[in-house]
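Open question from group meeting: does this chain pack into something compact, or does most of it stay loose? Before anyone orders reagents, we agreed to write out a predicted structure and look at it together. Recording both the input and the output here so the notebook holds the full record.
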Amino acid sequence: MTDAMDLLQFMKTFANLRLNGKPEELMPCAIKCWDRLNERFTSLAPHLNTVHVHMIEIYLGILLIAFKLDSNLLHGKERYTKSPWTAIESLRWSGFFDLYTTLKENGSHWEAQRLQSMLLPVVTFEDVMSTFIRADQVDAVAAGIDACQINPSVVLQSSSSPTRSATIC
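Structure tokens returned:
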């Protein structure tokens, strides 16, 4: 089966689950997608193409719907919160953080932003600070506040806005 056909199958499954799915169908579907990705990716190769990235997005979409409906669905299935190219003992979501970084570094900012927006609701604050927030920008804002060049209330207001806070990342 080609990558494009895999992607279409993932998209069809995802659409059916969103329309008619039952929570108990989500994890078996996510596991099937993960297994297919595992066959394709043994490492985070620099030659990932757009189809591969979309396959990973669809997988995450299915998994995150399951996670949002019932976080207990992942109990005993922590492996599936890790990408197929990361070690079993790696931290939850870490392979997807690596993908985000790779996409961003390769100029695929749109794909990186989509991945980021999918992961933000389920990752820890520490993960956000270490992966998605650029320390140099945080330091620049803090220095501006310390020098009384920036009104802190404006920074606090803009950081609570999802639209504006996404521009920091």
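Observations to bring back to the group:
The chain has nine helices and no strands.
Confidence is low (pLDDT under 50) at residues 156-169.
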